[in-house]
Write a structure and sequence with these properties.
alpha+beta, 5-stranded mixed β-sheet, 7 helices, flat
Amino acid sequence: MGDPTQPSVPADGAPPQPEDVAFARRIRKDFQRIQMEHEFAVDEVLTKVSILRKEFLHLHRYNPIEHVASRVKSPASILQKAARLEIAPTPKAIRAHIRDIAGVRITCSFIADTYRVLDTLTSQTDVQVLQVKDYITHPKPNGYKSLHALIEIPVFLSTGPVSVTVEIQVRTIAMDFWASLEHKIYYKYDGSVPADLVTSLTEAAHLADELDQRMEELHTEVRGAGWERVEDDAPDMDEQMLMRLWNSARTHR
């Protein structure tokens, strides 16, 4: 008996059968829904990051987040990866075995910022942390550095909440520049990078790390090690408004 999740294989030149067309439409609809759910999950994470940036600026007069980028795999890309990993093309199997459909990359100014930002994001009550990999403390052999976190976040749809997995990467500007260069080189050589280039990339990773360390030292020297709260003196309030507030406070004492 055949697998009901798989389409029948028509003879060469034979027109597609109705069940084959129905199967293809169902698969397309399922994959579009998976992509939509992950797009909404990315939106949720980006909203959280935006709120953090504004809070940091308001309370600390300092923004540790330089850049934010995101991506969601297309239905075709999801299907290709499922086929490559021999995963059944069903929503349940895709959600269980492909965890990098949605991704958010946060680029920070300094090394300490990467840990603080990731800790602040993952400590929120609606975020479930599935996995954290610290490639900053423990870099990959080629010199790659970054914080990776796999989180699960609820997305509220008309049919009810759905838990969606999002991969978060947090790194410094120097780490991001190096990772971008490495990706371009490996793409150009289709993964078979000459040994001398691999050596040069590893040396560049060490230089990027030295730059990060030096910039961290300068930042600490100028600003200090912590994120001290800066009291807002409400510079946008003129004297008349302050007097009205003062009089109102006295009246209602």
